[in-house]
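Lab notebook, page 48
Experiment: co-folding of the full assembly
Goal: obtain a model of how the components sit together before planning crosslinking
Operator: M.T.
Materials (sequences as entered):
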Amino acid sequence: MALHHVKIFSIFERFWHWSQMVLIMLLLFSGFGLHGFHRLLRFDAAVTLHTLAALALLLLWAFSVFWLFTTGAWRHFIPTGSGLWSVLRFYAYGIFKGERHPYRKAYWRKHNPLQALAYLVLKVVLFPAIWVSGLAYLSYFAWRNLPNAPVWLESVALVHTAAAFAILAFVLIHVYLLTTGHSFREHVKPMITGFDEVDLTPEEEAYLRTDEPSQIR
Amino acid sequence: MRGLPSFLSPCIGQRRAEKRSLWPNSLGRHLTATVLAVTLGLAGPFASAEVGSGWPTPPASGTPTQQLSGPLKGGTADHRKFEALRGPFADGPEVTQACLGCHTETGEHFMKNVHWTWSYQDPNTGQQLGKRYLINNFCTNSRGNEGMCAQCHAGYGWKDETFDFSDETKIDCLVCHETTGTYYKTPNSEGHAACSVMFEGKPPIDLAAAARSVDLPQRANCGACHFKGGGGDNVKHGDLSTALTNPPRTLDVHMGADGLNFACSACHVTNQHVWAGSRYNIIAKDTQGTGLPGQRADVTTCESCHGLAPHPVDSVTAFKLNDHVQSVACQTCHIPEFARGGVATVVDWDWRTAGKTHDGEGYHEEGYIQGNGEHRYTYKSIKGDFTYDENVVPEYRWFNGQMRYTTIDTRFDPDAESIEINGFSGSRADERSRIWPFKRMHTWQPYDRGNGTLVYTHLWGEDEAAYWGNYDMGTAIEKGMADFGLDYSGEFGFIQTFSWWPITHMVAPKEQALACRDCHRLRNSRIAGVKGVYVPGRDRNPWVDILGTLLVAGTLGGILIHGGIRRFSPHDGEHH
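Observation: model returned without errors.
Model output:
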């Protein structure tokens, strides 16, 4: 096993990540404006921005789900208990002692166990909660005549707002963790160039050198 | 002919709306609109304000146009050439007979309408309504005071119960149709000397000239009574004042003399002298829209011209606005304030102070100067104190069109703090309801404290009981009740009453319509008092906000602590 510069984020993943980042920023900004936390946008402009950004993000997610399953990349997000404790211990304690991060990226496991778990929760809990409630919210006038529609609307709004707070908290932690380790720049770079240091088995290295030379430096 | 194309221009919107109304259900319509909105929205999400800014509001036109009463213009006869109208006429009924000489069926038609009968029975509640019977919280009752009040009856000579409602020669054609502006009416009975003096010395009317000037009713014709309900300019409705006789389009986009120049009957469409659009029978939520060509000529709703999706879907905003049509009356956003245009409305009337005299003589005080510079009475011995308001923000309520009146027959708790002259129903759960704007009128007015009823007060008359001249409320009520065989306990008091006036005129050009944020805001929302619905921006779950804020603040705090320890721990950054 040896560390190599390997392309771990394909062009689609990087496009997905950064356009998702922009859209989520726009959604958080316009959404909390609609909620009344700031008045930097006119209400109708905020509605327009929020609706269009949300629909664009849904489209992006449709593509990403397709991509995850056709490429098999979904396996990166399978939760695992092995190594989770040591990562947690590292962030809670070891990091202050100058310990080395316990996790090494593997070719078929590019996220550490804590990361994978966090992203999984984001993908299967928070994101569905916000887009299901968001679509219900957006289409309220199509179901407003159902019994108890106002009560349902209130619940929809509750879920939507609660999920938004949780996503904002996720974003804050996500960005903060980029500052750990070597440097912020070092952490962001793979999501720009696609390359990061990965522990490769000799077989993996041989495979990449032979069949995918552009994926390894 | 200049007016014709501009009258037709809203129909462009109608056709668009019709196309979409072919979808079988609202969901299908909704999804289509979503797709449309998104497609268009992606093309130019923020360009909506510019796109289609000429629609449906017509730009102000430089040259004055003729008032439009409907899609058809130009009659087939010139009344100035009619032999029968040459005169001279001794009195009004003679003119009417001349009219009926050609318009042979009109008398019969006319005698069915509320302008003649002053009577309306609510088909849902069975309540006997109409000016002839009702008590309002302005001058209170016309019953027994017809000598004065029936000046605004579209007939001649109604002063008491003996008036013959089957005599078509007593119809007043001129008050609605003459266009010289010289025609006027005076009380049908003399009244107390102290009052009748007001009506002396008016110039004689040239009835023949008036008869030859007839045309479709102009705003001034309808306004002669409807702008002055409650005893003065805009006193009653709030959205109907003399400012609409010749209004700029900024005051009323439909009636604007420099715009569409609609006459009242352009919307209050008429079929055999029966008008659409009655306060007694309101369509609070029109679900039919324009209908097919030629249909729906019997309704006055906004939707009957503008359709059910009145905002052309060229942006996400327009799409959301069309959604709102289900919950919010057009008037709510498009009439941001009423009593605009410089004429104030009375919002509070206090009969308790009526009857003060100077040496036995009634008097009045002017204490309010309205927007157009005119002085208004704030006290009259015959009526009490008035409070005026202008550019009034309406009250907003769910309303399904159904009013229930407190009539002379209604018994209520005499110790009630207040009663509603016309309570109304409506709620979010009621599919016929929408959020409507109202003028709320507050009055202290006389009532029968013993029986808990409103009272007919004998205000106008030549006798010694008439309040207007004698200023004795007890005697006036006693006679007002006795004349109609009504039970009166003999003890009167004053009670607070509210009446509710749906606001529907003074529609502003769309650029002056309310903005979303006027309602969708935490504090001072226009619809702060509207219950039963979650309004984004106005409403929130406080727990979600508190816990969410704590979560985010806690996260930030955690980051600061974590980062702080890292910063001051000797080993950070030395290794990976």
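Interpretation: Helices of chain A lie at 11-35, 43-71, 84-92, 113-138, 140-143, 149-177, 184-193, 202-211.
Next step: discuss with group before ordering constructs.
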